[in-house]
Amino acid sequence: MPENSFKFLIAGVGGQGTVLASDILAEVGIRLGYDTKKSDILGLAVRGGSVVSHIQWAPKVHSPVLDEYDVDYLIGFEWLETLRRVTYIKPEGFILANDCRIDPMTVTSGQADYPAKESIMDDLNNAAAHVRIITGTQTALDLGNVLCFNIVVLGGLSKILGNEPDIWRDVIKDRVPSKILELNLTAYEKGRDLIK
Amino acid sequence: MRALLSGNEAIARGAYEAGIEVAAGYPGTPSSEILENVSSYKNIYSEWSVNEKVAMDAAAGAAYSGRRALVTTKQVGMNVLSDSLFYTAYTGLEAGLVVVTADDPGMFSSQNEQDNRHYAKLGKFPLLEPADSQECKDLIIKGIEISEQFDTPVVVRTTMRTSHSKSVVELGGDPAPPGDVGPFTRNMQKYNCMCLWSKKRHPVLEQRLLDLAEFAETYPYNRIHWGDRSLGIIASGVVYEYARQVFPKASFLKLGMVYPLPGKKIRQFADGVEKLLIIEELDPFIEEQVRAMGIDAVGKEIFPPCDELLPQTLQEIAEKHSLLPPKKKTPPITRDGDLPGRSPVLCAGCPHRSTFYLLNKMKLAVAGDIGCYNLGTLPPFNAQHTMGSMGASIGVLHGMGKSDLPEPAVCTIGDGTFFHAGIPPLLNMVHNHGKGTVIIMDNSTTAMTGHQDHPGNNYTLMGKPTREVDIENIVRALGVEKVISVDAFNVKAMGKALKECTACEGTAVLIAKGPCVFISRNPQPAYTVDADMCVACGTCAKAGCPATIKIDEINPKTKMKKAGIDPVLCIGCDICRQVCPTGAIQKPEER
Fold this sequence. Notes:
In chain A, 41% of the residues lie in helices and 22% in strands. Chain A has helices at residues 18-31, 79-84, 105-108, 117-127, 136-142, 149-161, 165-175, 181-194; strands at 6-13, 35-40, 50-58, 71-76, 89-98, 130-134.
C-alpha cells in the first residue's frame, strides 16, 4: 500500500456533476491501493445550491470530512464556489480552477455583486502556492455537451497527479453510462491535453 | 470482494445479506438511497409507502408473518412511525425487524436537529450506531440477529455523514433463498395489544432490556482499544472516527450499541483511564446514562449540543481545554466583504414558479409545507410564511381560517406530501366548515428527495405498472365543492383561479398541475430578450428563474441593468415571457 496521502475538495454548484466526479476520484484511489473515503452533500442543496465533496486517499482514513487549511488539492468547478472554499487549501496546496461563472440568485436579483475575476485570482494566489486555471466548460461546449466539463477537469487533475491514465479511463468506463461514454473518454483526453 | 459504498448503499447490501424479504419506507434525506438500492435486489420486496407509519405497519405485518423486514426513514419520519414502532416492542415478532433512522446533525435538509437515539429509551428497544459503511452493512445483519434472538424490533441510527459518506466494504455471501411461511400465527395474547394482554407484555419488555444489557457486555461492536491511559474516550457512530483522527493516541471505548449500555464494560474502561471524555454529536445520550452509573466524565460542558461535531471543532475544543497541544496554525485567509450567497433555487422550468410569483404579487398569507416548493420561502418570492412538518400546511390553514384574519389565507402542499399526510386535515376542513384555499402543487413526483414514485404515479419502486390515483377525484370524494385544476405553466389562468378560490367563503382547492422538469424532460429552445424592448423593470426577476440573468446594458433613465436569458439553463417553459410587461422576452421562432 502507498504510504503518502492525498486530500481533495471539489467545490461547485448543485447540478454540475460534483458527485460523479468525487465518485470517480474516490474509485481511482481504491484502485491505486489506498484506503479511501469521501463525503458529499446530497438532497435539497442539489437545486442550484453551493455543494462540496471531500475525498481522501491514505493508508488509513478515519474521518470522511476534511479540515480547513488541510486540503492538498482544491478542485473548483465554478469561480465563486472555488473562492468560497479557499479556506480549505493548505498554503503549499494546488488549486485547479475551472473557468466558469454561474451567477447565484443573489447576483441576478441585484442584491450582491459577483466578485471580479482578477480579485478572485488574487485571493486564490494568496491562499495556495499553485493555482492553475482549466477551461473545462469551454472545452466541453466545443465537444457538444457542457455537462462533461467535470470529466475534462478530472483529466487535467490526473495529468497533474501523474497517475497512470489507464486507471482513470477504466474507472470512467465503469461509472459513466455507455451512451455518453465516448464523449466522456474524449473529454478526459482533452482535459489531459489542457495541462502541459 | 471489496467495494466503495455509501452508508446507505451498504445498508441495502446488509439487507440483502441478512435475508431481509420485505422493505418499506418513505423518502427523506439523508435516508432515501437505502430503499432505492434495496430495490436493485430483486429477491427483496420493496416499496415506497405513502408515509412512514404505513411503512412501519407493513413491515410489522411482514415480520408477524415470518418474513424478515426493514423500514427506512429520515429522523423526523420516526415521529410519524413511532406510534407503530412502539407496539412492535411490546408484541415482538415472528421474524427479524430492523428500522433505520437517518438523522441530520447540521440540518442539511431537515426542519429540526432531533437526536433519535432517545427513541430507544422511550420505546424500550435496542439501538445500534454504525461508524462507517462497513458497519452500516454489518449492523443490519447483526440487527436482524438481535431482533430474532431477543424478539424485539432493532433500530439502526445513522447520520447524514454515515449515510452519505463512502468507504470500503467487504461484501459477504448471498443469503439463503426464502422459505415458505405460515399459516399466520394466531397468538393474540402476544400480538394483540389489548390492554389486559399488553399489561402482561410490559414486564417481558423490561426483562428483555436487562438481558440485552448483559448481551451488550460481550457484543463485539462494543469494543475497547487501549492506547495512552491518561485519556479515555467513549464515542459512537461517525464521531468515533472523528475522535480517532483528532486523538490518535487516546484509549477508546467504541460503542456499536448505545442502548442498552454495557455497564460493566463502561466501568472497566472508566477505571482503566485517568480522564474520561464522552464525545457525542447533539444530545448527551450516552453521557447521561454513564453519569447515572455514578461515573465521572467530561462531556457536554465542553462539547456543543448543536450542529455537527466535526474533527476541526473537536481539535479546537481539545486545544482550548488543554487536552491536546496546539497544532501549528496557518494564518487565516481573510477577504474584504462577504461572498454572494448561493441558496438552492427552483429549477429553470419548475412548475411551482407561477404559484409563488402570484402568491408574492397578491401578498397572500401562506401556510407552507415540505418539498422543493419550500424554496418559495426564499427571495424573490418570500411566499411561505410557515413550515413545520409533513402535511402541516392544511391543518395550519384551518386554524388560520378559524382566527378571523383580516385577509384571505392559502396553503401550499405538493402531491407527494398531500398523499403522505394531507388527506386527513383536508377532510377535517370539510367536516368542520374550514375556510381557506389549499393549493396542491402536483408535479407528478416526490421531487425534493430524488423523484420517487407515489400513488399519483403509474409505476412502483420495483418498476411494476400500477393504477395512478387522481388527486382531483380524491379531493371531490373528501367533499370539497370548490375544486379548480389549472395548468401551472399558464400564469393568467393560475391568477384567475387563485382569485376565484380566495374569494370563496369555505374550503377551496386549487390543483396546479405541471410535471417536474426531471419528469417531463422535454426541453424547448431557449428564449431570448430583445434588449431594445426591455425597460429593465425587473418583473421577470420576480419569477425567480436561475436562467433569467442581468446583462451589462442599462436603461439610461433608471440606470438599472436589463434582462437576459442564459441559453444553457433556459428550457423554454414560457413563464418569464408571460410575466414580462413589454413583450421583450420572446420565443425563439418569433424573432
